[in-house]
Amino acid sequence: MDSMTHQAPWRHITIGVDTHKDVHVAVALDGLGARLGELHLPTTPAGYADLEHWAAGLGPIEAFGIEGTGCYGAGLARYLDGLGHRIVEVDRPDRATRHRLGKSDPIDAEMAARSVLSGVAVGTPKAADGSTEMIRMLKVARDSAVKARTQSLNQIKALLVTAPAELRESIRGLSTPRLLEHCAAFRPGVLDSPTTAAKQALRSLARRNLALGAEVKEHDAEIGRLVSGTAPRLLAAFGVGPDSAATLLVTAGDNPGRLRSEAAFASLCGSSPIPASSGKTTRHRLNRGGDRQANAALHRVVVVRLRWHQPTRDYVARRTAEGKTKAEIMRCLKRYVAREIYGLLPIDCTASAAHPVLAGTA
What we know:
alpha/beta, Nucleotidyltransferase, domain 5, 3 domains, five-stranded mixed sheet, two-stranded antiparallel sheet, 14 helices, globular, disordered C terminus
């Protein structure tokens, strides 16, 4: 029989990994926290294989604690997950720990392993191997195109403020679409005056804006197709459009089953109240953590429902009569929407938990 299966539990190995662009640093601890070794590995498939072989040679592997599983550690996390190892997402050491122990890659790797060993780090990293990862990549391109489009429009309007008077008067009062079309059609000719230079700059910015608008539409169509195929129930919820649905899916990841409850999802979205009690005072405060893009998506859903969803409007009237402020009511609504959306995520383990006040489809 394999002698490894009869080793004492304290011989089980926990590996902490501090990740970087070109080189990762790993430190191994046994079940009692004793440091067993250190390894520097390149961020290549061969390096990942060397890490797994090195760790297996030290004893039965309990878990790998990896920093940056959504960034530099993504490739390593996917590789080890494919081999069936338990992966734990680890935050960087806090300032107090770094002030006490110093800062180096081996120290950070050791702290990652100790976080897993002590049970401080328990989070399962997001998977990035399915349709949600495809949505995330398209959203990165789409959001940057939207930002650049807005920037080009702002630059057009700024140029018009200081443009020669005859040029400024010729396009005064045009709507934004007409303004873009007019500027894109300029024929400045030889650049021999401020007017021709202004026309050249405006034409360039307008054509850039129109091209970016076409790019955004293309991304929106693909994102909408992927979202409708991945989570049709989520997309059918009242007030949840393709962009908001895509943002919430990206927050949950390709493995939303890692979220143990709807409360965990609400915390991930920054919509759960945080205890702030002391002594005889019992209260909660606003959660300013979590994924702020997901929090903004919940806010958009609530704003739509406040305008068009009658059960939500009735809820607001009731809570207002109880003395709640608008900000407090919005926080409650975002928490309820997070609960409803958790029940609509594309996983079998989440039963529908929609709040009766907010449930409803368009």
